[in-house]
Amino acid sequence: MIRVVNLNKSFNGKAVLENISVTFEPGKTNLIIGRSGSGKTVLLKSIVGLLEIDSGEIWYEKSLFNKLDFESKKTIRREMGMLFQGSALFDSLTVEQNVMFPLDMFTDQTKEEKIDRVNFCLNRVDINNSNKLFPAELSGGMKKRVAIARAISLNPKYLFCDEPNSGLDPLTAILIDALIKELTEEYSMTTIVNTHDMNSVMEIGEKIVFISEGIKCWEGNKNDILNSDCGTLNDFVFANSLAKKLRPTNR
Amino acid sequence: MLKFLTPAGQYFLFLKKVISKPEKASIYYTQTMREFVSLGLTSVGIVVIISFFMGAVITLQTAYNTENPIYPKYLIGLGCRDSMILEFSSTIAALILAGKVGSNIASEIGTMRVTEQIDALEIMGINSASYLVLPKIIAVVLFNPVLTLMAIVVGIFGGGIAGTFSGVMTLENFIYGIQYDFIPYYIVYSLIKTVVFAFIITSVSAFQGYYVEGGSLEVGRASTKAVVYSSVLILLFNVILTQLLLK
Q1: Nearest CA in chain B to A158
Q2: What range defines the domain where residue B208 resides?
């Protein structure tokens, strides 16, 4: 479980996140949604410690993550996996080497054991016969899958996904969403997904946090979202013409 | 003043992060071996070509400027030898390597930064600065003295060829000149300079790449800054080291 308490973050005096408090539960796909520039990525990067926060608390189970020293943070970070918006695969390494990288760094497994684990992870994300390819030779969807395989190679407790569907066609996006949900349930991970894709919200949104201009405006799940009283959330959810037609008439 | 001190302070904090205990020594060893090839061995060609022609030009220019019967011909060989050892093999080669190796390091690390590959390393609990930069520093610092020795030999060889074939002196005179009044300490001086310059090139370029913010345009700018700042620092430290070591 990850708990954020009264988190504040600003850049050059401009507040980007204000008093955010939220709990992300294990075994669930937790979504942070909001418009571009609303502060989603800053919140996610603050939670994983890539950005220093101004004030507030970030708890990983019983550890106050933002007050830990560098070495203690490293211990928790080894339990994290992250899927970046642009996949962030290492260009100079093959698919196999990318997935093997965390195993090389943090385990004392033999080469055979590592290759078995790599193949297991790649099979799990439906990537076959591509071990020797370089990231530049993969499609956008394949890159995301390989990045997921790398993220789960060390059996993480926490999985973070920043815009996992950006740049993907709707069908591939749904497949990636389904994969994230399956893995979350399979490994009982605490998964946090940043997205502004309403398809993802309706497919995998077990817990949803809506952020607007750095403020948490709404919290709920995919069943509640269509009936919310939050005006800015409704503007976001019913932004396109098809969604407008589906909008409940009493709103 | 603050504009200068802030990046200077940031540079030293960066160095502190770079020079820390490796997460796994075997991985760092493999990385260092890779860097020996990509930053060291691939520089051999350019250093050999440049040194050969530098040696040739030094010989010809010395010959044309000492066309006087009171100057013995072997002075041309001596001039070529000392110029190559004292200045050209270390400083000029370092300036050229600042262009090749420095821009390579800054653009590689800068691209990793803007494509979030460095963030991916940090998330895994890896000290990204140390993992990416330390092997490069070790490889270049260890390999540049080899390049310098190579530059000295090839430069003197180039001088001998140019001098002999242009007819400005005989090969015997040249060989006598390069053996005349040889001071071995000059080689030590040159190697010390090379090690310092190698450290400057790799650390300054890596620093420029590591803190890139933005996109491809900023990576290009960081690459240019890496070459400019490395070159200026090389020239500055050349003066300081010469004053300190050749007193």
Answers
A1: B123
A2: 29-245
The complex's ipTM? 0.86
Q: Is B171 on the interface with A (CB under 8 A)?
A: no
Mutate to test the interface with B, among A45, A50, A99 (most CBs of B within 10 A): A50
Of B187, B194, B146, B149, nearest to B36 by C-alpha is B146
A17 residue type, one letter: L
pTM: 0.87
Per-residue pLDDT tens over the stretch A192-222? 999 888 888 888 888 999 999 999 988 888 8
Is there a domain that residue B24 lies in? Answer: no
Structural domain count, chain B = 1
A29 strand-pairing partners: A191
Q: For residues A118 and A114, what is the distance between their CA atoms, to the nearest angstrom? A: 6
- Chain B residues whose CB is inside 8 A of the A105 CB are 23-24, 27, 124, 126
B23 within some domain: no
Strand partners, A24: A2
B196 found inside a domain: yes
Yes or no, beta carbons of B115 and A80 under 8 Å apart: no
Q: Is residue B14 part of a domain?
A: no
Cα A100 from Cα A116, distance rounded (Å)? 10
